[in-house]
């Protein structure tokens, strides 16, 4: 004999409770999902899943056993021909309970209990999908590896230019200071030349202007040294 469920029964007697759960199971198999209280949904789950286990056997003895609980032969036919084959690859967990809040009036917690009809992915299919994902990941990361080369190309200096050195002094043959943020250049002896920190050096004004730099303060301010 199975151990009786602890706590108060759903009905006034064990027979009333058994009939109530059988009727709820029949409604679940007919409509695939029903709304009831959380307490009834939790008590209904093992009863309904046990009937599905009988239906998965598919023999005459199992059909007769299910007919002892379900009175509607059309629902039993649906269970054996549609629901049980859909659960054939599923080892358990045939139902799903989703809480939907409390009921207006008595504030009873409600839930939706439904059949899990989705196909089950086999372990081999999951392993194959994981292997394909791991193989495709390095190929997707390949363009990122080529990014440093593109960045190195974009940092090439224009003609007649020299990168700043750590000492801050002018490289030999490059005396014109350039500011990359303002795109201005300063020639030796001009107004702001001494206080300007060079971000790029040019050998001639023509090289600076060819790189897109303009004279700071206008052309007149850059003719002091000439």
TrEMBL record:
What does the record list as GO biological process? Answer: translation
Q: Which UniProt keywords apply?
A: Ribonucleoprotein, Ribosomal protein
Annotated segments matching region Disordered: 137-176
Q: Which PANTHER family match?
A: LARGE RIBOSOMAL SUBUNIT PROTEIN BL17M (PTHR14413:SF16), RIBOSOMAL PROTEIN L17 (PTHR14413)
Matching entries from SUPFAM superfamilies are given as: Prokaryotic ribosomal protein L17
Task: List where the protein spans the membrane.
Answer: none
Report the domain of life of the source organism: Bacteria
Question: Can you cite an annotated GO cellular component?
Answer: cytosolic large ribosomal subunit
This protein's name: Large ribosomal subunit protein bL17
The UniProt entry's sequence similarity note says:
Belongs to the bacterial ribosomal protein bL17 family.
Pfam families, per the entry:
Ribosomal_L17
Kindly state the subunit structure of this protein.
Part of the 50S ribosomal subunit. Contacts protein L32.
Q: Name one GO molecular function term.
A: structural constituent of ribosome
Amino acid composition bias (Low complexity), ranges on this chain: 137-159
